[in-house]
Amino acid sequence: MSGAWRALEAALAGALAEAEGKGRRRRLRPMTRIAGGRVMLADGRTLIDFSSNDYLGLSLHPQVAARAADYAQRLGAGSAGSRLVTGTLIEHLQVEARLAAFKRAEAALLFASGYQANASILPALIGLLPAPVKVFADRLNHASLHAGLAQADLRQIRFRHNDLDHLERQLQALPNQGASRLIVTETVFSMDGDRADLAGLADLADRYDAILYLDEAHATGVFGPHGAGLAAELPACPAGGRAPAIVMGTLGKALGGFGAYVAGPQLLIDALVQACGGFIYSTAPPPAVLGALDAALDLVPGMGAERAALQAAAGRVRRAAAARGFDTLGSSTQIVPLQLGAESWAMKAMADLEAAGLLGVAIRPPTVPEGSSRLRLSLSTVHSDADIDRLVEAIGALA
Ligand SMILES: Cc1ncc(COP(=O)(O)O)c(C=O)c1O
Predict the structure, then answer these.
(1) Mind telling me the catalytic residues?
(2) Is 371 in the same domain as 308?
(3) Between 20 and 30 A from 241 (CA), which of 19, 37, 174, 374?
(4) pLDDT (0 to 100) of residue 238
(5) Mutate to test the pocket of ligand 1, among 59, 110, 115 (most ligand atoms within 8 A of CB)
(6) Which of 277, 301, 325 is the last residue of a domain?
(7) 3-state DSSP call for residue 214?
(8) Which residues line ligand 1 (CB under 6 A)?
(9) Residues 106 and 176 in one domain
(10) In a domain, 20, yes or no
(11) DSSP 226
């Protein structure tokens, strides 16, 4: 073995030992997802899953799975090329047109994943905007948004989480003078389960001449008219029409499949096709993904009753958490964190839930800030009232 390999091995072993020493070594845990919002562990135990993002239960929906299988059988397992070479099927364009209509946007573009979308759209967009570009980003934005901004090689101006007064002070402190301004935020925050104030953000964007970039990963399918997301509720502009925004979201959460999209003006989509590395230099999403999305787009608009029941169940869980004295961090969605603070406490709470037959995964740094370890509970329309009863009971019994 060469010296370089020995040095690498020593460094890798050192990094793993350090993580182990801090109790933060992560391990992959295999499980089989089964109907009714359950998972089966490798040891055969079945737990009620309160940790996945399958908010509408579509990942195991027979219609979604059948259409994914049908597309794969008719069109192949892979797309065999990148979109600009041989990878664009008629079906890509069809589902993109459907997505655009669903999101009430002029056009939409598919990506292989949400991480890839954010990590590559943001630097492309920043490269296209007239320089200099000033980016204002919520401090609790998802890692993929940070990755995209880091890739653009600029310093983010980070405002306190959901604090629009702080954002406004930052906007005031940087007079426009020809700079392009971009405000980047999630609409439903993945780890806190709270929502951005979109009306307030649209107002600031209007008054300070900024562009809004919204990540709807956890809102798509769950909020807004027919599940179109919160951006579909942006207020009207004084000049008419809805406040414009660049909106991305993922397909692997409420929509039950895999991948991501960006939706916005046709001009933006056309420009991203020319300039966005994550779109250009990557194999096109495979047919099964397109089939799953096509079926999800048939189902999601009509799931209004399920969406209402999902939020009612989340309210029950929040009330149970509050009664037990837990901070749920401003959650107003299907994501309900129980903020516990110490990592050891979060791990213990996860083990207690597991002993009660429930899966509620502990989320620890670096995914969340130091000292804010939590159980991130997420609800799905496939949970029964009896499942929620068991969760409420288990929360009440947490030591
Ligand atoms: C807010 C947010 N954006 C982007 C992503 C990345 O999406 P994907 O899982 O499709 O890579 C996630 C996923 O966890 C997310 O929570």
Answers:
(1) 53, 142, 186, 190, 215, 218, 253
(2) yes
(3) 174
(4) 56
(5) 115
(6) 301
(7) strand
(8) 113-115, 118, 142, 144, 186, 190, 215, 217, 250, 252, 260
(9) yes
(10) no
(11) G
